[in-house]
Amino acid sequence: MGAPKEMKKGESMVPPPPEDWEGWKEVKYNPAFKGTGCGTYSLYLHHSREIFLDHISSFFFHLGSLIQSKPNLTIFLSLFITFLFIPGIFFLKAENDALYLWVPQETRVWSNFMYVRDNFGGQKRVTSLLITSFDGDEDLINGEAIRSMIHIHNNLTISYENIDGRTFQDFCVKDGQNDCEISNFLSIWDYNASKVEDDKHTLLYQINQYIDNVPASIQFGGLKYAPDGSGVLLGFKAARMQYYCISDVPDFTHYNNTSLKTWGPVTWWFSKLWQVEDWEKTIMIELNDNWSEKKESKILNVECVTKRSVDDEVYRLVIDDFSLFLGAIFCIILWLALTFGRQNIIEARFLITWTVAIEMACCLIFSYGAMGYMNLLGVPGVKVCSLNAMVPFIIAGVSVDDMIVIEDFFNKAEGKKNRMAECLKAAGVAITTTSLTSIAAFFTGTFCDMPGVRSFCLCCFLAFTWDYVLNVTLFPALILIDQKRIDANRHFLCPCIEVDEEHKARERSSSMSAHVERQKSTKSIRSLKSLSERGSSFSRSAYISIRGYKEKPGAVEHFMYAHYGAFLQYETVQMWVLILFSISALILGFMSYFAGVGLTIAQVLPYDSYIIDFVESVDSYFPTSIDQLRIVVRDLDYTDSDQVSNMFDYFSFVQRYDGIEGNVGMAQGSWYTNYAYFLYSNDHHIYDDFHTYLQEWFDNDGEPFKSDVICTDDEAGNCIDVTSSIYKVWNNSPDDTMETYNVQKDLNEGVERYGLSPNSYIFSENFLFAETDWKMYSYICWNLFLTIVIVGIVMLIFTDNISCFFITLMVIFIDADLMGMMYFLDINISAISFICILMSIGLSVDYCVHIGHAFTHSDGEAPNIRLVEAVKMMGTSVLKGGMTTFLGTIVLAFSSSDAFRTFFKMMFMTVVFGMLHGLIALPVFLTTFYNLAGRAAHFEKSKDQVGSKLQKGARKKKEIEKGRHKELAGVALELNIRGEEEEGGGDFQREVVREGSDKTVTFGVVREESDKTVTFGVFGKESSSFEFDDNPLRN
């Protein structure tokens, strides 16, 4: 053992540290590092959390051991359980009707709709024809054009058959006189072309008589009136004709009747619905595809849209974009191939990257199959829609993040005896946290009363749950099998080929060089503090043990540590980050209130869809949309003159309202006015004899009005009273849904104001979408609040209190920024954007939780050091995860549907804002908080025994001054300390020899104290360049 260095008087006992030494660390006393808050509750929560996480880590350790011992059995069981859900796919129910997808079903308007649908004829399948002149700009009031229209009408209603030989007459909605319900002006000539004259004046006279009863704007577009203001119609450029078929939707889809609920696909095949849809297909082929071959095409231009048109176009959209979807999967696989393993012919993990496609397929089978089994068990509201087509890309883009983490920890555990057990022990809790947050976000969405959102969230919830299971079972098993290939020096593309000796030597040399580099960069394994001492989560012991085998940092990781992390340490940078991110969230959150609202039919169809052309043509000829308002009067005593008078007063109010066309009851009058006329003309009293002649009138003149009333029947089945009835009136519906909502609100407030029953109301299907749009913003905010609360609870279980708070704050910031950017990108608030915002919660947590985890578990005592360690440790993984999510959704930018492109915009912004907040905002917010907490705690003389390093340092100094020798914690693992202490000025040095060696190490400790900071420095020198890497006073 060498003699201590001889010191001159007045000279410091401690030689100056080397200039390139990085051991000086500024340690700010911070009780937050020890725990997660103050008070008994926080300590109890912290202790309970650590016990729970210890059990989770132990579970993953045993799971990894089991997988490592039986990887083939693990793969078999994973796939076998998945395939059990394949039969459930055949029981899936599809839905593309906007009414049953994007309208909340817990509202008064929806209840009104259901009452009308179930009691007054239900929905109708509408086939719409828009007829214009050949060049689109000529007047249609001429004999040739009208005769051609009649020919088209007769072909549509009589000649065109489905595959079963049935015509429109077999499917049409029939009125009380057993005539098909049709809306067009050709009834003027009884649909007989021979009755049409060529004289235009005669035609004008006949048409003007017709519009005296039916508003012209309902069926005619491009109107031309007499200039004298008389209202005489002189011409029109477009005619709209509508044909109504029975919905006959099988009861298992929309109705409560259970007689057809079982054997769903079989019932559907034999129902009239299939036959109606096939007839509609015939119509579209004849009037759209083959129209140019017909002689009428030289005179007229016809555009046709049927009920099934939307379904067909959505199906075409999926088929046309299928190649893009495959491209997304290929991009992700290619990206993983470049990041998994080492880039040589043996250690490259190209085959493992195809696990993405395997897991995606398994997750779809599981989710769709589970939803099918739910339908089989009678669970209501479980349907799939076109939006579910985006689920595979979300799985492929998001689940890869967990694969990257597992593969990364598997590489870091190289050399471990039970490698996969150590890998899952270190990575299991982290991926469980990120997966559960996404699962929780989608699970919250399953309680949404908007069926389309609920369907999508249910599908994602099931898919993400199974993806998590596969990521901790199937994927590790496949990695182990691939590792056997690597150990056997098999080719990365074809495992049956063994690499020749020359390549073996080259690869072995490359691996040995990498191993030497890892050994050089490997730090000494220090004693591990218990979880209760460390005050952290995510199984720190497993995390540190894996880091002991950490590979040499790559270029990106070096940049994160040496440049990016150092840049974020500047106080000026941190100040601007705090200001900019906070102000951005406030401003963009405020701007979100001004974003547009609503979802149009064009947004869910291919950009070249004929339906979009049809809608644009209708808008050009019909500037206002005409719809039918239905006044539902319930619980009215028709023998009470006052109540009847109140009803007619309300009708007068409705007829005076802006936009109302014609009178209540329309051209033929209402059932009540016709019945009252019957009573009056037969010398019966309108009130006293109201009940007496009801059945007689309905059996004769009143038969067409039977569907407008709900009667109370006597024992013989005769109608003796009317409990509910419907009155119809035409309305020019505003294009703006907010204006439509105001119309609905005003007209329904009038019901109460005029003394009608509270159960009475006025209804239109447009009111459903208007109220949905009006409530959408508050609806989104409320559901976001619930989702964030649930995600926050999940985070509180797996992370410390402070990290949980700031990660949740980052999620709120991200969603505020996302909703604000919708205003600037002209993205409306709709069901699609609602789903994207809901999904962004789960995705943004992924970007933040890893950084927060790394910050909590880094080795640095000072917050700034923890910041650098956090971005160095997980910054690269966060970037990789963001890139895979981006690659999984970028193809949607080239989709032919505006809905898919909107989805891409929202996902792109989620990735950008998620990485910005995860890599910049979160570490800076955490660093600032701990710096402020440390400074505040320095002035407190707390007696709390959470552990004060300042008090420990003071006790250590007193012990040194009294001459008591103590071995320093941390150093004792590497050195057997021998020698005597030399005191002077609070500094000291000692000379020790490493056990089993004659090499001498001289080390020293310098302690400097200011009013706010206690600074420790450590240095060491020896002939063999032995170096300490820890603070000897840390413990």
From TrEMBL:
Residues 321-481 form the SSD domain. Keywords: Membrane, Transmembrane, Transmembrane helix. Gene3D superfamilies: Multidrug efflux transporter AcrB transmembrane domain (1.20.1640.10). GO terms for cellular component: membrane. SUPFAM superfamilies: Multidrug efflux transporter AcrB transmembrane domain. PROSITE patterns: SSD. The chain crosses the membrane at residues 73-92, 314-338, 350-369, 389-406, 426-447, 453-481, 576-601, 776-798, 805-825, 831-849, 870-894, 906-933. This is SSD domain-containing protein. It comes from Triparma laevis f. longispina.
